[in-house]
Amino acid sequence: MIELDECENRLLQAALKAMGSAYVLWGIKVGAAVVAEDGCVYEGCNVESWVSGLGTCAERCAINHAVLHGNRCIKEIAVVMDAKNDAEPRPCGACLQYIYDFAQSARLKIVMAKAEKGKILLEKVRIKTIEELLPLAYRK
Ligand SMILES: [Zn+2]
């Protein structure tokens, strides 16, 4: 089991709470939370649409939430997925690029977890950097 620091625990709890607001039509409930340059935590959830490609992922929702409050730089992100799904919790390719676009550094940590019955499954938490998950990010 990975040892989590205070920030990671705080982000996971915020992402778990945000997962409860997910608007899913057929998919998986996902919550995300970022800590931004102002030190505040901004949450997001996935929002689906009946029109393919129109919905948004929890990670981009959380980053947009931070931007709305004047932040253009995020320090860390957590993603929590409902354990009902077999897939490993991790950002999709589009979100990895979006995280990279707003990341404070290539070493930004992405904390990934599943949740069951309102609790984070701590034994399955994984932490990777954005550079590990997207080594060939599109750069300006
Ligand atoms: Zn995504």
Q: What is the topology?
A:
Blueprint (H helix, E strand, L loop, with lengths): L5 H14 L10 E7 L4 E5 L12 H11 L5 E9 L10 H10 L6 E8 L2 E2 L5 E4 H4 L7
Parallel strand pairs: 3-4
Antiparallel strand pairs: 1-2, 1-3, 4-5, 4-6
The structure holds zinc ion.
Zinc ion (ZN) binds next to helix 3.
Question: Which key terms come to mind for this protein?
Answer:
140 residues; alpha+beta; Cytidine Deaminase, domain 2; six-stranded mixed beta sheet; 6 strands; binds zinc ion
Per the principal axes of the C-alpha atoms, what is the gross shape? globular
Distance between the termini: 37 Å
Mean pLDDT: 96
- Unreliable segments (pLDDT under 50, ≥5 consecutive)? none
User: Can you write the helix and strand succession as a string?
Assistant: HEEHEHEEEH
Integer tally of domains? 1
Tell me the Rg in angstroms: 14 Å
Number of strands: 6
Task: Characterize the structure shown.
With about 140 residues, the protein is of the alpha+beta class. Helices cover about 30% and strands about 25% of the residues. It is built from 4 helices and 6 strands; from the N terminus they run H-E-E-H-E-H-E-E-E-H. Strands 1, 2, 3, 4, 5 and 6 form a 6-stranded mixed beta sheet that branches. A hairpin with a 2-residue loop joins strand 4 and strand 5.
